[in-house]
Sequence to fold (180 residues):
Amino acid sequence: DLVRVADGYNGLGIVYKRLGDYPQSLVYYTEALATYDSIQDEMGLGAANENVGVLYDLMKEPEKSMAYYQRAIDIYTKAQKPLSVSTARSNVAVLYVGQQRYDEALAIFRQNLKTYDSMGRHANSINAGVDIGHVYRLQGRHAEAREILLKSLEKAREFSKEQEQADIYHNLFEIAMAED
Fold:
């Protein structure tokens, strides 16, 4: 079953990425991409492209990272998978934040928030709110950051999202320190 083979390659790519062996990770991701492509598994191909994008981001190669993210977005868009499109777009926005392209990142995070809210995806909405608050904080827009972070905190508490709560508290702490 070639789907399982491709999934195995993709999984090994993830394992080696987490071990910090990026060249070996890329070998397995490349095998996953080729296998998914040969069986025309669009969602697998999208996920593997995203994973390669993450890998290139870790390797400090943003141009390559962006190219793989864009491939994933194109695949997910064609497959009419708005949640997957938003997830891949979040990766692009994170690249933009690293490049201090804050307005572009905010546009993506805001669009994702609308998508997640329209789909009733509360956990994703919380993360988008945290992302927006983080960018506002980096821009020194503390009042706006605090407002969206506190709204996200309410949702995070409601849905018992502990990691998100920790991220929110960290951002609120950084704001308090900057204003002190």
User: Anything to note?
Assistant: The chain has a mean pLDDT of 97.
